[in-house]
Amino acid sequence: MQVWELTAWSRDGLRRTERPDPAPGPGEVVVGIEAASLNYRDLVMVNGGYGRAGGALPVVPLSDGAGRIVAVGDGVDPALAGQLVVPSFFQYWRSGRFPPDALTGALGGPLDGVLQERMLLDAGGVVAAPRGWTAQEASTLPCAAITAWSAVAVLARTRPGDVVVVEGTGGVACFAVQFAHLCGAHVVVVSSSDAKLAAVQRLGADTLINYRRTPQWGKAVRADVREADLVIELGGAETLGQALRAVRPGGTIALIGVLSGGLAELPLGPAVTREIRFQSVTCGSRDDLRDMVRAIDASTIRPMIDRTYPFEALPDAFDRLEAAAHVGKICVSGVA
Ligand SMILES: NC(=O)c1ccc[n+]([C@@H]2O[C@H](COP(=O)([O-])OP(=O)(O)OC[C@H]3O[C@@H](n4cnc5c(N)ncnc54)[C@H](OP(=O)(O)O)[C@@H]3O)[C@@H](O)[C@H]2O)c1
After folding, report:
1. Which end of the chain has fewer surrounding CB within 10 Å, N or C?
2. How far is the CA of 256 from the centre of ligand 1 (A)?
3. CATH of the domain spanning 145-280
């Protein structure tokens, strides 16, 4: 079967090659991967940014994909054959809160990821795709969507009337807008671009702020809407200060991303005197993924797909991600 492999910790280390077709053992399934999607994490991973947590080379890149079950091992219901499924991002985190060994089971490093024609997985590590979704749409779910879901619905328990601020218009951000809107929140999006803001307005964003024109956007949120109940913190070093300005006493800052750098200065005064909850978010479990699919099934949500590249054009997909020209998710087709 055809695969992409990362053979050195750099973009030049990406190679197309072949591996033997997998056969399912007891409790396992083989999924014919039809589509994949990129996350910012994949860019960091390819460049060796996860250090030893990235595992050993060669590794098949990309954590997120979807496809149909094409073979089942002993003990797995044969009726599952043909079902469209998505692999859970953390293969060993099935339920409950974050277990200590979760990172060892991440797809796309240290475990082999989805850019392979046929992927061997534990039957308990996959979840049925939302009803009526294509493989391409379903491929957007495992990392970006579950992270947004965990922050908005599971950890912050967003309720109707809450104010939720979302930073940027990338993969996690677009799903955060959609889930916060689904929960009945007033959604504020801050972005570098008016065109991108117009795109996310269609997803349910209520208030749009261009952070290039309004660098003090935390103040603008308070003035134009009200203090936020939840801030989806994706920017890291450059944005944490504004997130702290925007959030209400007792509100939550969901610490998710480090897009502008991983070392941030935190003014402790406004943090410790207002009972701010700093809630780190690390994707979610297999059961969280299932719950999220159930919520999607009961909604009209569809993912924001920016562009889809053929399997062989993976480097071009990485270029677009790196340029941050996209809104939502960048996808890659399967081999076929
Ligand atoms: N903790 C977790 O479990 C978890 C899971 C998934 C992702 N993440 C992290 O979350 C972040 C986003 O991931 P992603 O895959 O959604 O990324 P992405 O699709 O590449 O999103 C990038 C977008 O973020 C916005 N952005 C960049 N710098 C910004 C800044 N300084 N302030 C505000 N917005 C900024 C830009 O949108 P605009 O041009 O519209 O501003 C950019 O297009 C990454 O750091 C990723 O590693 C963490």
Report:
1. C
2. 9
3. 3.40.50.720
